[in-house]
Amino acid sequence: MIEVKRKKRYKAKISMAPLIDCIFLLLIFFLLTSTFVQREMFGLELAAAQTAEVSFDEMVELVYTKTNDIFVNSRPVKKEELIAYLRALFVESENNDVMLIVDRRTKLEVLTALIDKVKQAGGSSLSIATRSEKNE
Question: What does CATH list as the number for 44-135?
């Protein structure tokens, strides 16, 4: 019998490093864009202020929309459950600073009620989100 030597076949190998790099970059892209879109999705027009500053502090974001919905850190919360939800959040994170984000046409009664609920829940400081007049 004659022996026929075959050439070694090479199996195709898929390198995982470039694939992992691509997935990591996509993840970063989606995390960043979702953060920017999150604030714009409510369609609020913030009040203008000459002393508006950019804050990078970690704060609890309390959003009151034009449709009278309340969101705390992008999670919907009912008005009657707001104080209990904020208390639980303050205990859990030990961060009592709140950023209030409302439309500039929000009634003073509503704004006062929200501020009162934050204080009742134990909020230590409250900031109101504004836009800079310089951008106009």
Answer: 3.30.420.270
Please measure the distance between the N-terminal and C-terminal CA atoms of the chain and give it in whole angstroms. 91
| 59 contacts 129 by C-beta, under 8 angstroms | no
- Other CB atoms within a 10 A radius of the CB of residue 118 amount to 22
pLDDT per residue over 39-88, tens digit each? 555 667 777 776 766 665 688 888 888 888 888 888 889 989 999 999 99
**pLDDT band per the 50, 70, 90 thresholds, residue 16:** confident
Helices (H), ranges, the chain: 16-40, 82-93, 108-121
**Cα 70 to Cα 68: distance, rounded to the nearest angstrom:** 7
Using CB atoms within 10 Å of the CB of residue 21, give its burial: 0 to 12 exposed, 13 to 18 middle, 19+ buried: exposed
From the list 119, 127, 52, the residue with the least C-alpha distance to 82 is 119
Q: What's the Cα-to-Cα distance from 93 to each of 56, 58, 81, 82, 104, rounded to whole Å? A: 17, 10, 18, 16, 29
